[in-house]
Amino acid sequence: xxxxxxxxxxxxxxxxxxxxxxxxxxxxxxxxxxxxxxxxxxxxxxxxxxxxxxxxxxxxxxxxxxxxxxxxxxxxxxxxxxxxxxxxxxxxxxxxxxxxxxxxxxxxxxxxxxxxxxxxxxxxxxxxxxxxxxxxxxxxxxxxxxxxxxxxxxxxxxxxxxxxxxxxxxxxxxxxxxxxxxxxxxxxxxxxxxxxxxxxxxxxxxxxxxxxxxxxxxxxxxxxxxxxxxxxxxxxxxxxxxxxxxxxxxxxxxxxxxxxxxxxxxxxxxxxxxxxxxxxxxxxxxxxxxxxxxxxxxxxxxxxxxxxxxxxxxxxxxxxxx
Length: 322
Hints:
- This is F-box domain-containing protein.
- By secondary structure, the chain is of the alpha/beta class.
- The protein is built from nine helices and 16 strands.
- It has a domain at 8-50: Monooxygenase.
- Helix 2 (28-35) packs across helix 3 (39-47).
């Protein structure tokens, strides 16, 4: 493994187009290396608007900053690795950082603390922290120090089965978007104190869900992949929505195994066929229903490979409907 090598090539003396062409030949590690030379080179890298598809922070037994790039390039920073039975680790200034790019691993002698490094990467690559993952063994790191150093996170993904720790995560970060996966569930169900929180986006794959759970879910955009669900339950949910439940709901997506009874979905509901196409949110066809206050919703269903995709679009006043 090698330290990052900074070339003596007179990059800044070149015309701007030549500098840009040079950047296009660099791998992400070289771009990062140029950005830390000086404030001028940092501003230069920033000006070229090199943008990955996603910036993720992953906390398990390791603390990793990972970039998802348009190509198949692997590019991530490994800052810490905490062995089992070690004292709780506080994030600070790691002496060395292992930078992985494809099959190469480089060792960088570091002088920035975790927050400074993340802020630097966010600026030069024009990305927020799209996702923060709490995975198995994430409890080896101080949660308070993670909260202090990893800021302005768009979405939190929780894989850990330590439910008290998960509640502390949500209390500290108060994320706008949340995904719960695998061990974060209790007997394949979402704890109800989590369902009741006001997320903008709430996503859970492989979950057991009942009517009361749907009614308690207070998020705007909800995506649930259900292990089982009946059309009768959905019919009851729609009737209660008409009466005023789930006032924050804007979009509900449910996927579940097909079962007989699709004709039950609109029993006892007033509806009319929706226009064949609405551009916003790609709502195609379906049926329109109305809440007691006049708010309109479009319901569409699609069955493929024995899986139902149920979509509910709620057209609030701030939405524009074609």
